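Key idea: predict the complex, not the pieces.
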Amino acid sequence: MATTTHQAQAIGLGSSHSIETASDHELLALIRDGDEVAFQEIVRRYRNPITNFVYRMIDDYERSVELAQETFIRIFTSASRYQANYSFSTYIYRIASNLAISELRRRKRRKVVSLFSPFTTDDGEAIEIDPPDVNPLQDETMIKDERRRAVARAIASLPEKYRAAIVLRDVEGLSYDRIAEVLDLSEGTVKSRINRARNLLKEKLSAYV
Amino acid sequence: MMTCKQIKKLIDEADRPDVLAFEAAGHVASCASCREFADQRASLRELLASGTRVSVPINFDATLQARLAAATGRNSFSWFSPAVYLRLAGATAAIVVAIFVAQYNGFIFAPDEAGTREVVAVGTNSAAPTNPQAAAVAPTAHGEVMNTGDTARVPSHQMTAQRHSSATASVRGARVEERRVRSVESSAAVAGRDLRAADGAVVLVRGRNGDLEVPVPTVSVGAQPLVYVNMGGQAPRNVRASF
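Result:
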């Protein structure tokens, strides 16, 4: 059971149960004072969504776990710089998005070539080599696994500016205005990028759509 | 009347693929192209949302705590930046300069060039008992200093300062070590003064801010003159006796 800190009592959180029901802003105020219990609660709330989001972005589970941890470390060490002008989820997703995009650019500099898209068009978009599967029908589990892998590959093949928008919208379920805050873009730009990303994904996942 | 392009834009921007704007819903009912587009968009969004959501490993929290401890440990020393080095160096230099200035001006006890204290045991007239004045400065509760070092005999009529090598003095409750005592000539002229210790010993304390005569009770026991100095009042810096 979580220990109630004096900081929690100071802002009216009188029991461990209150920590779990406290808002993100209240928890961040406690984290600013060095409250580790509040920080653990924030981690508990966002560790899976952030890890999943980063995983969708970079398609690398182990690295996505590291980047998710880096996100929380930055939350803790920079808690004093957080401003309550926007929601905490926007704040944490922004940090995670920046880390994921930085990772993608770092990999691009290392010229990491995907086996499924070794060629690119003049616009820089990957040309996916995906030969049709002429094998007989497989069982349901394998079909689902294959579909999931196909979705992951398709998202990973998107340009990074489209990838972040489509993952936040169709995978994480954020609203357009929230995505605009996370990516520091206008709502119109966000909608445009999502539309473009869906058009690309429809071509890559035509067999499943 | 909205065009199919505008309707498709509304379909694409819908918060939920199965809930369309009023205008789009009405158009889709009568337009096969837009209805196909709406169905494909709903299927695609469902496919993207149905992907496997990963979860963190079991040791996620433990690893995070370890990384956080390492990160905060690094941050605790982040203040020790080059700028801080410069500030510390400047502050240290200022303190050193202030100490030198204070010593030069005599605000702080400055040892002699050899870094030693100089207390000259002054020989007195052996016939002179402890004079009343000296008695007035007889040892007090602060203790008295008795030079038990290598004290040479002092003729009764001669006032000479003795050099005591590694003389040590014991003070009640304290221990004063005299490493070297400079001997002075038995010159009667010291800065134009003619010092006598007719009624006892007089210790001339010379400081940078002036000289101070300290009457000292002296008692001769046998051939060993003993000098009592009240150390409770002041600590002589340069003491020289000239007679």
